[in-house]
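Hello forum,

I keep getting stuck at the same step: I have a sequence, I want structure tokens, and every attempt I make locally crashes halfway through. Rather than fight my setup again tonight, could one of you with a working pipeline run this one for me? It's a single chain of 254 residues.
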Amino acid sequence: MDPVVITGGFGRVGSLVRPALLAEHRLRVVDRVAGTTLPGEESVVADLAEPGVAERALAGASGLVHLAGDPRPHAAWEEAYRANVTLTRRVLDAAAGQGVPRVVLASTVHAMGEYNRPEHRPVDPAWEPRPCCAYGLSKVITENLGRLHAELTGASVVCLRLGSTGYALDEARYLGMWLSGRDAGALLLAALTAGPGWSVHFGMSANTRRHWDLASARKLGYEPRDDSEPYAATAGPPTAVICRIFDGEDNPRA
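Reply #2:
Ran it on my machine without issues. Output:
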């Protein structure tokens, strides 16, 4: 069985989802930092930005889950562009050259962050993107790189606008956009079954307070099982400015 390549696989999200992916796929974990592999995994410890690394990592792959990047909402535009746009372009070019038939790109809810206002809820992933920060803008561009890749190669490309994944639910503003580790794994497995073409979906759990529409993700076969509501009693007020996604009462101003 040809492996699925997961970039940034030893990171925060990758570490959460790899056990679920291993239930159905061999994995090739690619990361700049070494980590502990699980049974059924091989690893490539290298920087995908270096010449030839992406091509070597994707050789013989049956799929690609691209998680590597800079997830900081406060990152400077130059940093976000280099880590998210330039790197994704390099990886997609390598995937095209190696004939990888399935690609899943980790995007972010920040790509639609300006809709996080009461008058827009529930937010439909089919609406025109309205990013709230440089990070969100960089992911809008990577989504469109994915669309172009699908059109040029005929591959399946699924972009997942992930919510808060792998962080403690210690602030109430994250309750609506939380994505549990279990649901994140199920979402990625569903995305790897999509047919040819490009699509984009929100990635959250079945949260009572969710206002991000999961209808299109459910069409992939994703059925979220977890809800952030049990954490509501202990989730406190916001502690720091994030970006415009939380403008208003959920985003304190310094």
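Helices lie at 12-22, 53-58, 77-98, 134-153, 181-191, 215-219. If your local run keeps crashing, start a new thread with the error log.
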